[in-house]
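Lecture 7 notes: from sequence to structure.

We start with a single chain of 463 residues. Read the sequence below before looking at the structure.
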Amino acid sequence: MLMIPGGKKIQNAGNFEIYLITDYQEQDIRHFALADALVLDWQQPEYATALLKEIRASFIESIYLLPVFIFNADGVVSDTQKSLSDGELSVVQEEPIGKMIRQVKKRREDFTPHETNSSENRILTKLFRYLYTRDKTLNPEVDVHAHMGYEYPLIRLHYPAGESMEMLKILRRGTENDFFKGTFVDKTHVCPKCHSGHLNLREVCTKCASAHISSENLIHHFVCAYMGPEGDFVTKQGLVCPKCNRQLRHIGVDYDKPSVIYRCHDCRHEFQEPDITALCLNCKTVTPVENLLEITLDKYSLTDLGRDAARTGIKVAGEEREFTIPGFVNFSTFLTFLRFEIERVKVSGKESQMGSISLNLPARLRSNRQQFERLVLDISDFVRNNTDSSDILSFANDNTFFMIFPEKGATSVEKMLNDFRSSIEKLLSNTFEDEPEWNLAAQYETLNAETEYNALINQVKTI
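Now the structure, written as tokens:
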């Protein structure tokens, strides 16, 4: 029987594994792989949102496609949060949950396994499959906390805030290859330097660019044709022309106000039309409004070709080529070796280790494919030269080195991985000298008679 810590099974006529999650402490999404649906109690919205995002950010199909509903009696759920769920319930009802479970299960029967070394294709295939199972469109959501002020929540999970352009680029690629149909929703303007949508628009002095300016009306006196700032006309007796000393009584008869004049309180410059600039509240860059970057925001729906790609995965022109690494096996072959090694240690009674080193680089550092592949080859050379010929090595998903160490002890493997990490960090520091946004994660798992292959594979695929 499936057990989920912090979850209470909801009895239902369909005998589905539906769980109400009320305790969010130390939840492990791998427990959800065999569930049919989750209902998240919204009494702790921060924890519930974090768990919901973690589920949708997974690349394990049985997890990221899991139907998830929000149980909300009296709280507030944002459009962004709703878009990541399958619906908001004020009462836990079996009908909408069961309907979504059956739909997702039915659609998943159409899918064939898909592996690719392209990070973009992994994200796109995942996005296609999510939209396909839900009959959904991908919509931009207004979000005051979003870097651009708008968000595509599902795909945003795979891009840091500063990589908004990379996020939009992958959506444009989907449209250019006819996987998506884009329908106009809105336009927004962002900082050309950091692409933030949080801007302060100011009228500024045309001479010194100070925002410390004020305006007043210009008055044109019909009789003597004098024109000057309204302040020059103001007296205790009312408006009096400073040129001819006549009193101005009726606008449109004695005078009019044809324009305004601006005055800078810093440099005393006077002008009739101010410049307009945008101060980026994120990076403090000041930009003339005509130089702001204009972003078109579409909603995206799957085309017939997109639905085909959801079923089979994608291979399109422009995909980063898969490159071979001497001494390394592909990921599917690695998984086969892993299964055999688990069976072998169960028979022999001896322990082995499986290690991994995850190379977490922002998309902009992977954009130079030639440089990235050279880096991967340098790291793989180092790993290969410091492991035994009996060790099984693989590199998967553009970011993780996997290793099987037959009959090696945990202590020696832990030391080896720490040495690897230290050396790779030095290589990264030299390669990306001025780029601090990368990190490494090294870990290992002991393979013994208690190891469950399916559980370990789910864990491996979350790395």
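The longest helix spans residues 410-431. Keep this in mind for problem set 3.
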